[in-house]
Amino acid sequence: MAMRAARGLSFLVLLFFAFSGVAQAAEARRIVTTDNSDYFGFDLRSDQNVSLDQCKTTCLGDPACRAFTYNTKAKWCFLKSDFNQLKPFNGAIAGKVANVDGDPDIGAPPELAFFPGWMADQAQQYRNKLTDPVYDKPTEGLGALQAAAEQAQLTGDHRLAMQKYEAAVTVLPDDGHLWLGLARETLAVQPASNTSEGSTLPANGTSAAFNAYKLVRTTKTRAQALALLGAGLDRRDLYRPSLQAYEASLALVSSPSVQADYADLKARKGFRVIDHTVDADTSAPRICAQFSEDLVKTGVDYSQFVTVDNAAPKGVEAKDKQICVEGLEHGQHYEVTFRAGLPAAIGEVTNAPVVLSIYVQDRAPSARFTGDSFVLPAGARRGIPVVTVNMNAAKMKLYRIGDRSLAQLLSGYQFLKQLDGYDLSNISDQMGSPVWEGQLDIANDLNKEVTTSFPVDEALPQRKPGVYVLTAQAVDDHSDEYDSRATQWFVVSDIGLSTYTGQDGLNVFARSLGSAKPITGAELTLLARNNEILGTATTDAEGRAVFNPGLTRGEGGMVPAVLMAKQGDNDFVFLDMGRAGFDLSDRGVTGRPAPGALDVYAWTERGIYRVGEDVHVAALARDGAAKAVENLPLTFIFTRPDGVEDRRIVSDGASAGGHAVDLPLEPNAMRGTWTVSIHTDPKQAAVASQMFLVEDFVPDRIEFD
Hints:
Elements: H1 2-27, E1 29-40, E2 43-48, H2 52-61, E3 67-71, E4 76-80, E5 85-99, H3 117-131, H4 142-155, H5 158-171, H6 176-188, H7 197-215, H8 219-235, H9 239-252, H10 256-269, E6 273-279, E7 286-291, E8 306-308, E9 315-319, E10 322-326, E11 332-338, E12 354-360, E13 366-369, E14 375-377, E15 383-389, E16 393-402, H11 406-411, H12 421-431, E17 432-441, E18 449-455, H13 456-459, E19 466-474, E20 486-493, E21 495-502, E22 505-512, E23 523-528, E24 533-538, E25 544-547, E26 560-567, E27 571-576, E28 598-604, E29 608-609, E30 614-623, E31 634-639, E32 645-651, E33 658-664, E34 672-679, E35 688-694
Parallel strand pairs: 14-20, 29-35
Antiparallel strand pairs: 1-5, 2-4, 3-4, 3-5, 6-7, 7-10, 8-11, 9-10, 11-12, 13-15, 15-18, 16-17, 16-19, 19-20, 21-22, 22-25, 23-24, 23-26, 26-27, 28-30, 30-33, 31-32, 31-34, 34-35
Helix pairs in contact: 3-7, 4-5, 5-6, 6-7, 6-8, 7-8, 8-9, 9-10
């Protein structure tokens, strides 16, 4: 019974302090009015047939009322839950609630564009947690909780102060001052070791500061909330939003302590030089400084912010987050200065000059080959150019891959690639063997590229059929096995091969690379992917040979992979049947498949139409000999953008295999990409198709003066 009485007494005390707090809040408020004005929006409710004084009293007596608009003619009082925009309205009086202490109510808080949306959700979740009915409620009254929090703050017990403010918020969650105290003390607590407080405390402190920002109504308290928000964001490594929070706080109140925190954060995480690199392994070395923010894209000459040894730089490139100084030399020491005031795209500038003292070292030893061409002519002196930098000699290795391993080579990933140590070991152990190893003497020129010819004839006095792989590296190179080495693939041959596929099979032509004359008697071998021999042939007097068309239609391991050609014992070349003759992949061109017995080519006179116009579609039907196929009916099926068939039109094609049909577009025709498919039999696949657009557009026009 005594326990129940105690609980009842605590509940009455809690209610007393809560209601006394509300009463004190009501007494501490007054009304400030503006004639011929209206606070737009935030309608709470309205009272009719009341005087202005009655309207003021009603608003002061309602904790939810923060403003009102009184219509003097109609005697209507429109109570507002908040206010933001003050609009002119003749015959109306706008009133707002202000604190008696003299701090004016500055209205509803503006949106914070820099504050992440997920953090705003996190702040709401934190508030919901503290106001949830199942959350443990304090037994002390509100006044006692506030007094205990303030006392704990004075004694430096920030953890206890945080707990008391958190308990007070559960009693009066709409008090912005309580949220301010909670944010301040939460951010002051030292996280316990081996716990998650290192992340939860900054998160709760940021959430409390944001909740306070949404509730406080004066310039001073809002500035405090923004400063605490900046501190919390700094703890959570969100430096740019933190700087913006500090800037918003200082825009309201110029606080020396906030200014100091802002200056410290800006020095640590503001717009600044964060790193630098030296591009010394190029013929034109340069020094690049990386900044923390993007630079201004246009309209700023960054060369005026850079000096090299107290002189203007010879060249400056500014892009993205980097400024590079050019016109330097190897083996020289430079002092590069980036002046204060250098601007970023976000509007910030560097506060102090940055001086970089850098030595540009000599280029590292390197070797490369000049290209990926791998057929060396047999009728001329054969040498492979090797381009080196800062090397007196190059370590050269030559490998040979036999003709019987070509299918395995071409089906892998290594062919024509730069190889590393593991790839070379694989070639040596499984597909080929090393045939020569030695050093190539080089007339070195410091920091300049030197081209030296590797004498193939001396390394290979007697060549065997196959593909050769030549690698080059520095003599004292100690790089890892997985680092790529300069690699040149080549064959030495006078045979040039070209092929095309038709209905009669695979046609092969062999010509001399030296004279372009047909090669007679060249032995051709067509290998499958699984290394099986699909067929053999010998070129005739015209240098031509034909493989049966059935040999090119294999599947799986029987797909043609390599075409090899041999003339005598020394001349050998091959053609990769899996690669396109011309690589047009970077041009957006895939080519047109070879036609069969019937070839239908379709087109429209333009690619885009407006509703109400006629789409003119034409098609030509030809056989394998490119002759007109007459009297062949073709069905044109037009499909809307949603995939629904619109209509079918049949053309008899009586005029030299030519077909022409028109599709009138209805005024309500669907906009988007239409398709016309052409069929010899509508139940079978289309023999040709074409797409066109239907859109609302205005053609380009030329205006003449």
